[in-house]
Amino acid sequence: MRLAYYPGCSLHASAAPYHSSTLLVAETLGLELLEVPEWICCGATPTHSMSPLLALAFPMQNLVQVEAMGMDRVALPCAACYGRFRAADRRIKEAPELRKQVEAALGVEYHSSVAILHLLDLLANHVGLEAIGRKVVKPLSQLRLACYYGCLLTRPPKVVAFDDPDSPSVMEKLMQACGASTVEWPYKTECCGATFGISYEEVALRLIHQLLADAVRAGAEMVVAACPLCQPNLDIRQEEAEKASAKPLSVPVVYFTQLLALALGHDVRKLGFEKNFVDPLPVLRQRGVV
Predict the structure, then answer these.
(1) What is the pLDDT of residue 67?
(2) In CATH terms, is domain 137-286 a member of 3.40.50.11810?
(3) Residue 190 and residue 207 in contact, taking contact as beta carbons nearer than 8 Å
(4) pLDDT band at 287 (very low <50, low <70, confident <90, very high)
(5) Does this model's pTM top 0.70?
(6) Which sequence spans correspond to the domains of the chain?
(7) What is the Cα–Cα distance from 165 to 168, expressed in whole angstroms?
(8) 112: alpha, beta or left, given left = phi > 0 and alpha = psi -120 to 50?
(9) Class of 2-118 in CATH
(10) E strands of 120-251, at which residues?
């Protein structure tokens, strides 16, 4: 299966393990991910809060590049990028006059021919859970995981719409296909605080601690994320959150593709676990996964 791949800004920088493990998973599953040439930032939060036109133009420029590749599908690992692409594509389809304005600003024509898929959607619903399960050579047996979606991946439901917005389960099913057990917990779609870590640090630290503490109460020994904004926030700020609440945590937070690549037989040394602030390897060794 060949399709375009838009890594976004984070996956070539702060979320490098997400990128490298995604490519390893794709290789094993027979996916040929072709990186969009000359891609630009999706605009993320700052753009759509500053300029409605730019908020559409940035994703649309990337989608035009996908069409130029001759691709009719694009996979995105980042929840923020995925949401911006889907929102822009929907808005442009609904408003012909707005489409003309954006096309005039970019000097290109967009044909709305590209299906925009989050990586989770691609793997679970297009490759298929059974097909992935057949490729597992190192089951994640006895590993108890809390799957964390964050607040962007399933909302707004009319825009993203590949799983239940309030109680998604696609990541749980994917991890279960790899042999892991997953816990039910109410915080899996709550906000992690994200950029509040800069403007309202105390709010972010409180959210981080509440989220991780609840995952532990539910029986999880590791949190699995699908967003390059959530994972570093929960991992890097965890020590600060512990100090602010005076209650210890020490919960590893990893990308779902890292565990999937491990289950598919890839060398643990290639998966970037050493970049974590909270080391996941002790738990993985204790459970016999590595």
Answers:
(1) 97
(2) yes
(3) yes
(4) very high
(5) yes
(6) 2-118, 137-286
(7) 6
(8) left
(9) mainly alpha
(10) 144-148, 181-182, 222-225
